DNA sequence: AGATTGAACGCTTTGTTGATTATTCAGAAT
DNA sequence: ATTCTGAATAATCAACAAAGCGTTCAATCT
C-alpha cells in the first residue's frame, strides 16, 4: 500500500524530469520506465496512460498554486477589493511566468487542455469556490452587494477569461495585461452606474 | 476608372461564390480567374494576393454589420443599458450564427485572423468607437459615470472577449453564451459595490 | 504605351513509406 | 495469487518525393 504510492511517486518524479527536460512528446514511456528500473508495461499498473502521468504532475503543481490563492483570498486586514485584486493578479502572473519561462510547460498545458477538457473545468471550479468565499465574506462585511454568489463568481471568471491563459489568446506583454486586468476589475467592482460613495479614501 | 472598379467587383463576386462553396483553401486563383474570363496573372493587377481578396470580401460584409451596430447604439427612446445590451448581443449572435451556419466562414475567419492580425484590431477599433459614443451620450444623460471613455470602452471589450469569437474559445451553446453575456453585462453596469439607487423600476 | 497573357519558379501541401512509440497481454518470476 | 516482464500490435510520427498552387514577368496583343 505504502509501497504502491512510493512507486507512483517515483514514476511521477522520473516523468517530471524527462518532461521538463526534453518535453512531453519527446519522452517515451520506455525511457520513464528505464529511469524507474522497470519495464514499460509495468507503468500501466500505476497509470492508465502517458497523459495521465502528465495530468498527475499538473494536478500536483496546481494544488500548491490553489493553496496560495486560498491564502490570498482570506488574508485578514485587507478589504475585499484588494483581496480580489491580489487573487486575479496572482492568477495572471503565475500563468504568464510559467508559460514564459519554459516552452515545456506551454506544451504540456496545450496537450492537457486539448486532450482533457475536463481538467480546465476542474481548475475553474476550484477557483470559483475561492471566489465565492471571498464574495460571501465581502457581503457579510457590507463591502459588496451580491445576491447569487455562485452565479456572480461565474461571471467574474467569464469577464476575466482573457487573463487566465494569457498567451493562448493574445500576444500582449505582461504590463499591458496587468493594465487591462486592473481596468476590468475596477469596472466589475464599481460598475458604470453612479455610485453611493464615489470615493471613500482618496489618499 | 469605373471599369476598373467593376472588374474588381467581378473578381470579388466570383471569389465569394467559390470561397463559400468550396472553401478558401480549395479555391485556386486559376479558377477565380477563369470565372472572370481572364488569366490568373491578371488578378494581380487588382489585388496584391489571394488573401487580399478574402479580406475585401470580409470587409464588405463587416461594413454592413457595423452600420447595423451603429444604428443599435443610437436608437432613440431606449436607455443606455438597453442599447449596450442590444449592441453586445447583436455582436454575439451575428458571429455565432455566421460561424454556425457554414464552416467556410469559420475557415475564412481563421485564415484572416492568423495571417492578418491587423484586421481583427481594426474591427475592435471600429466597435470601440461605437461604444465610446454610447458611453458619451449615456454620461450626458446621467445614466453612466465614466471618466475616461476610450479606456472604459477598451475594458468593456476586454471583459466581453469571450463572446466575440464564441466558438474559438469555448464549445458553449448560444443560450449558455447569452446567459453569461447577460450576467457579465449586468456586472459591468451595476458593479459589485452597493448602489445609489438599488432598483429603479422593478416591474 | 498599356493591358493582358501564360509558362516558369519556388514554396507549400499532399501522399507514401518506414520507423517509433504507446499500449496490451500471455506468460515468467516471486 | 500477485507482480512484473517484454515481445507483439496497432496507432502515430518523420522523412522524403511528387504534385499543386500562388505569384512573377518576359513576351504578346490591342
Give an overview of the whole structure.
The structure is a homodimer of 203-residue chains. Chain A is an all-alpha fold and 203 residues long. In chain A, 73% of the residues lie in helices and 0% in strands. Chain A has helices at residues 2-22, 29-35, 40-43, 50-74, 80-101, 103-115, 117-140, 149-159, 166-169, 174-190. In chain A, helix 4 packs parallel to helix 7 and helix 7 crosses helix 8 (149-159). Chain A starts with a helix and ends in a 13-residue tail after the last helix. Residues 196-203 of chain A have low confidence and may be disordered. The A-B interface holds A 135, 138, 142-146, 151-152, 154-156, 158-162, 169, 180, 183-184, 186-196 and B 135, 138, 142-146, 151-152, 154-156, 158-162, 169, 180, 183-184, 186-196. The first copy, chain A, binds a DNA duplex (30 and 30 nucleotides) through residues 25, 28-30, 38-45, 49-50.
Question: Keyphrases for this structure?
Answer:
mainly alpha; homodimer; DNA-binding; 10 helices; 203 residues
- SSE succession of chain A: HHHHHHHHHH
Give the class of chain A from helix and strand content and strand pairing: mainly alpha
Global geometry of chain A: elongated
Task: Please give the radius of gyration of chain A in angstroms.
Answer: 21 Å
Number of DSSP E strands of chain A: 0
Using CB atoms under 8 Å apart, which protein chain pair has the greatest interface? A-B, 32 and 32 residues
Number of helices of chain A: 10
Note the gap between the termini of chain A. Answer: 60 Å
Q: Could you name the ranges of chain A where pLDDT drops below 50 across 5 or more consecutive residues?
A: 196-203
Q: How much strand of chain A?
A: under 5%
- Helix content percent band of chain A: over 70%
Mean pLDDT of chain A comes to 90
Largest sheet entry of chain A: none
Oligomeric state of this protein: homodimer
Amino acid at each position: 500500500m505504502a509501497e504502491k504510492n512510493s512507486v507512483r511517486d517515483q514514476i511521477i518524479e522520473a516523468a517530471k524530469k524527462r518532461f521538463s527536460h526534453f518535453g512531453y512528446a519527446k519522452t517515451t514511456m520506455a525511457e520513464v520506465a528505464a529511469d524507474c528500473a522497470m519495464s514499460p508495461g509495468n507503468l500501466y499498473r500505476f497509470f492508465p496512460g502517458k497523459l495521465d502521468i502528465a495530468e498527475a504532475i499538473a494536478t500536483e503543481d496546481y494544488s500548491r498554486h490553489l493553496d496560495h490563492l486560498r491564502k490570498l483570498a482570506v488574508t485578514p486586514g485587507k478589504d475585499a477589493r484588494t483581496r480580489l485584486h491580489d487573487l486575479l493578479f496572482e492568477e495572471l502572473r503565475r500563468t504568464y511566468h510559467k508559460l514564459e519561462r519554459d516552452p515545456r510547460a506551454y506544451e504540456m498545458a496545450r496537450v492537457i487542455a486539448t486532450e482533457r477538457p475536463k481538467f480546465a473545468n476542474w481548475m475553474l471550479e476550484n477557483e470559483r469556490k475561492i471566489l465565492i468565499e471571498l464574495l460571501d465574506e465581502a457581503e457579510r462585511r457590507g463591502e459588496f452587494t451580491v445576491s447569487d454568489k455562485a452565479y456572480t463568481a461565474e461571471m467574474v471568471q467569464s469577464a476575466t477569461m482573457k487573463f487566465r491563459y494569457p498567451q493562448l489568446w493574445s500576444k500582449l506583454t505582461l504590463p499591458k495585461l496587468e493594465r487591462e486586468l486592473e481596468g476590468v476589475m475596477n469596472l466589475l467592482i464599481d460598475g458604470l452606474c453612479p455610485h453611493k460613495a464615489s470615493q471613500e479614501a482618496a489618499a
